[in-house]
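Sat 14:20. Reprocessing the chain from the morning session after the first attempt stalled halfway. Input below, unchanged.
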Amino acid sequence: MKQTFNGDENNNRKESLSDDEIKKAMTKTKVNPSERAKRESLSKAMEGIEFARNKASNRHQKAHRKNWVKGMGVTGLAAAIMALIIVNTEVFQDAFTSGNGTGTSPQEEIADENEEPVTPDEEKRPKTIEIVTYPEGMEETNTYQLVNEEDFPFTTYMPDNFISERMYVDNGLGIKFSSENSDVMMMEIVFFDAGTSEEEARELVNEELQLLGGVEELPSSEIEVDVPEWAIASYHHSEEKFGMLTLGSVDEQFFYIHDQYIIEAGDGWGPRKEVILEEWVWKETGEPLQEIEEGGEETGD
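Finished this time. Tokens:
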């Protein structure tokens, strides 16, 4: 009887699987979970296997081989549970990290889609600011409003009593700043279509200058007007209305700035024009207008 029992025990050792063999079989799953998920799932599965093995050992004297088969059945069940744990762990990970890979939940993604896009300039630049100027030598504080048009590559500030209007011109798109219900002072900014050459841009500027009178190219010894460093060409006009038109370029796209005013408004317009140009910032680089040199390259200063 004892020998028969020993014989069954020997057969059990030959037919049962070792811990290492079970671990190898269980870790050959084809899913690709995280290492942490693998370790936790394997630990839980091995606990179930050990429980089944101990239970079989306690009962082997009554029906050893029958219980060995049951023990292996529990082992297979534990392995299947481990695979389900691994798969479900990965599914939950995918649910919370799908889309952009940054841990954004589906609810957050839907909320983001419903929000209006905000440009970096709108985040950095307030809607209005108070600026001190000195028209006719007198200190003056005025409110200026942010100008941030979608189709234009810059932002700036204009006086709060000014309005902005789009200009649809041949070979380009422009924007005009002017006093509300008045044209005593104004500024036009026109960007020519991409692909316009410098020669074509100069020709278009000349067509605009022909509509004005008393045009003179700058610099001029007779006119005390500073020419911007970024200017490719600059002109002054002084018939009926006074003003200045300057051609420049940025990222191989040509543009011009044209301002004009009546003689009586000259002292008031000068400081306002200076604010618009000094507050000018390119959206893509965050650099001011004055950092642009001739040819559209940024200075290193």
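The two ends are 100 Å apart (CA to CA).
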